Amino acid sequence: MLAHRGAARVAVENTVEAFVAASALGADGVELDVHRSADGALVVHHDADARGVGVLAERTEAEIRAARPEIPTLEEALEACAGMLVNIEVKNLPGDADYDPREGVAGAVVELLTRRDRRDDVLVSSFNLESADRVRELDGAIPTGFLTLVGMDPVDGVDIAHAHGHGAVNPDVRALVGEAAAATVARAHDFGMAVNVWTVNGEDEMRRLAAVGVDAIITDVPDVARRVFDA
User: Which terminal residue of the chain has fewer beta carbons within 10 Å of its beta carbon, N or C?
Assistant: First the structure.
């Protein structure tokens, strides 16, 4: 079970405090979002544009730190999440304020993980298949996943991810209605892939997905999920 942006109902999302709180609430890991600063630092924030900062890619790390000291670097986040799985979501879709067709964020993430020799306790995922592909191209030992939205058939998402060599698919829970959940899990497991579903907050939904064999849920309420799964 992964805490969505950390324990975001206890602390400010995507902060060291939220990640530490997630661990305290029993999360197995966290999901977080990564962008780049103007001087190439990897910073953890959901949107490309941050309140009080503007577009992160147009500000240096020092400028971001001065305006919003709670926004951590990815390295700081990884330190705070020691002992947990970290799902690093690379934010880089066409139309984003900081979209980079050269996949600089993906490259910088690989560089950081290689330098830290952290591969077994991370999953690098993205809605942009090219971003996930770039990570695999640079270092095939880093686990990667493809994030899919509600408008995509989740079984198709599994097939696309598998064709590109990714070990996980992270579908929107809203796409896993009826028979789709079991079909998605069966297809992925046939390929030896993991299914990590986002964002699952209802207890009944958690039990339903656990029953069909999803590998992980991403949730805003890690304390609730911990209670459900322990029971």
Answer: C
Helix extents (H) in 25-100 = 61-67, 74-80
* 118 burial level (CB within 10 Å; 0-12, 13-18, 19+): middle
pTM confidence score = 0.98
* Domain residue ranges in the chain: 2-230
Find out whether 26 and 221 touch, Cβ atoms under 8 Å.
no
Token duo for residue 29: 């890991």
CA distance 211 to 117: 35
CATH architecture assignment, domain 2-230: Alpha-Beta Barrel (3.20)
User: 223 Cβ partners below 8 Å, 6+ apart?
Assistant: 7, 25, 26
How many other C-beta atoms lie within 10 A of the C-beta of residue 62?
A: 11
Taking a C-beta distance cutoff of 8 angstroms, is the pair 86, 29 a contact? Answer: yes
- DSSP assigned state of 56: G
What count of other Cβ atoms lies within 10 Å of the Cβ of residue 140? 10
pLDDT tens digits, 11-52? 999 999 999 999 999 999 999 999 999 999 999 999 999 999
